[in-house]
Design goal:
Strand content: under 5%
Low-confidence stretches: 10-16, 98-143
Distance between the termini: 29 Å
Shape: globular
Mean pLDDT: 75
Number of helices: 15
Largest sheet: none
Order of helices and strands: HHHHHHHHHHHHHHH
Radius of gyration: 23 Å
Helix content: 55-70%
Structural class: mainly alpha
Number of strands: 0
């Protein structure tokens, strides 16, 4: 679905040095990509829900075949199917058969004005990132396009990295410890399956919704979406402090929504600031944030508090105190992430 949205919203297909221009998608192809993208999203939600809830208890291996059908759906992009409804929707948005339109031109002009550069720089014609001196000049003139080395010296990059380190790490902490949390609150073994489904579906909603919202409502800077998402994660972590299996349903869903939204917001915000020839390296470095967040918050923090709350020589911890300190620390950290988001300019 993310790839479908990128294609449908007119990603830049300009050539680089020594390569020919890539043909833009026409209206029919865009409609097909969008329809299949949303279809795959719906199938994925159904597959996660049905397999997690019933495959383990009722022993239905046939549900595994749904995954094969899900993957096979990608081949629908290769067939000349007609999606008239999507074509009409895209036509109303200003798209034309040559792959462009009024909406695309306006978005491009807006992006150029924010970067302070011209269209040749934004399209990545190969001149960007040729040397450190040219990157420094680009930054000095107001453009956000830079080499990987220049980006690592940028304050905004480390602010975005820190916010995602806290937010994604908080989400992974719940995912990794949901089984122990359910047992500590008096649940039975295997009962965590339902909560895992809620986290998964929430993550799916967050990934799709955050990207669409940040594109649809452009009056609100994308950094503000990161701020709102951090506050949502803080609220979810605070709700986890309630020692009740019933309230845990909502807590898991909210955590999933916020966790998934980070994966959509981080690439687009980095792209707004640092799009260029080295963007792959920039995004790869930023994706270390959830890894480090998992190591710090889940592996070290949560396990340390869990051991402190466990009785001596006990294999497991029972009671609300097992994870309460962890959720309080993560909630406070998420509020700190929200404050850091305000500094992204």
């Amino acid at each position: 679905p993310a790839g479908a949205m990128a294609a449908a919203l007119g990603a830049s297909l300009a050539p680089t040095k020594g390569t020919a221009a890539a043909p833009a998608l026409n209206l029919e192809e865009r409609a097909r990509v969008v329809a299949v993208g949303y279809g795959l999203l719906a199938l994925l939600v159904v597959y996660i829900s049905s397999s997690s809830l019933s495959q383990k208890q009722q022993n239905r291996p046939v549900l595994g075949l749904l995954l094969i059908g899900l993957l096979a759906s990608f081949f629908a992009l290769l067939w000349p199917i007609k999606v008239r409804r999507m074509e009409r929707i895209l036509s109303r948005g200003g798209w034309s058969d040559n792959g462009g339109g009024g909406a695309d031109d306006a978005a491009t002009a807006s992006l150029m004005s924010r970067r302070g550069g011209n269209s040749s720089t934004a399209d990545g014609d190969g001149d960007v990132g040729a040397s450190t001196s040219s990157s420094a000049a680009a930054l000095a003139s107001g453009s956000r396009v830079a080499t990987f080395e220049q980006v690592l010296r940028e304050r905004n990059f480390w602010l975005i990295f820190s916010v995602c380190f806290i937010g994604m790490g908080s989400g992974i902490t719940l995912i990794n410890n949901i089984g122990g949390l359910v047992l500590s609150l008096g649940g039975a073994r295997g009962q965590q399956d339902t909560y895992v489904v809620l986290i998964s579906v929430g993550s799916c909603v967050g990934r799709a919704g955050a990207g669409l919202a940040s594109d649809q409502f452009k009056r609100w800077p994308r950094a503000n979406y990161l701020l709102a998402n951090s506050l949502l994660m803080a609220l979810a972590q605070l709700s986890l402090c309630i020692p009740n299996l019933s309230s845990l349903y909502l807590s898991c869903f909210l955590t999933g929504v916020s966790f998934g939204a980070y994966f959509s917001l981080m690439p687009v915000i980095l792209g707004d600031f640092f799009a260029g020839s080295d963007f792959g390296k920039v995004l790869g470095a930023a994706m270390m944030a959830p890894t480090l967040g998992s190591l710090v918050f889940s592996t070290f923090l949560a396990s340390t508090f869990y051991k402190w709350a466990s009785p001596a020589h006990a294999a497991t911890c029972v009671g609300p105190a097992c994870f309460r300190a962890t959720w309080f620390v993560l909630a406070a950290s998420s509020f700190l992430a929200a404050q850091l988001s305000r500094k992204i300019k």
